[in-house]
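Schema walk-through. Below, the input block comes first and the output block second. Nothing else is stored per chain. Lengths vary across the set, and this one has 243 residues.
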Amino acid sequence: LQVLSRIDSILRSPRAPPLIFRPSKGPGQNYMEESAQGFEHLPLTIEMWADQLIALKDLHKSLRKLSLELLPWNTKDPQDNRESIRVEDLQLIVDAILEELEHKEKNSHTPSLQTLSAIVSHFQKLFDVNSLNGVYPRMNEVYTKLGEMTNTMRNLHELLELDSSAPPTVVVDTVGKLCDIVKKNVTEQVQQLLGTQDIHSIINKLEEHESFFPPFQALIQDLLCLLEISNVGDILPAVQSLK
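--- output ---
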């Protein structure tokens, strides 16, 4: 009876939820009858609370997962080994997450660890770097190559008298046109040198020179050795002195 009286005092307390006790509206009844009728729905309420306590544990697990995603460095949770989970435990986790989100908003210019990791991974993929140790050397290599390319493009713009804003395609086209002009001039000079405008004649001339110059070169070498001189210009004076 004392236990029932204590439970009754707790359930009738102003702090108790109104759904756990419904006073009887009938005529005057003794204490036990009124309590029995007022608490008829209490088993259903207790069952609901039991379900909520189980759901509270599931909610705690979900919040812990979210906390590990947002706060990976905060792995310590003193409530992990407790059988009962309190609302205060959940509130601590939520407060920590909110505090971190507010901190991120204030320092939005500072990238997170996840962002930095994604940037490094993207660099490794773009420039075929297999390990983290190779990131810095490849960065230096890319920086050096970029500097060389920038200087080359600047010099080409100046040599070709192009505007500094001209894209690389314009530079390539201009260099291609210059190469065509140079090839055309070389062809004309060869034709003038060999005294012919016919390509077949040019081939014949080259074949004649190819058959003539090797024996002529061998003769000159023999004369240089025979006359014991080293200059082609000294051959004629040396031969004249032998007369």
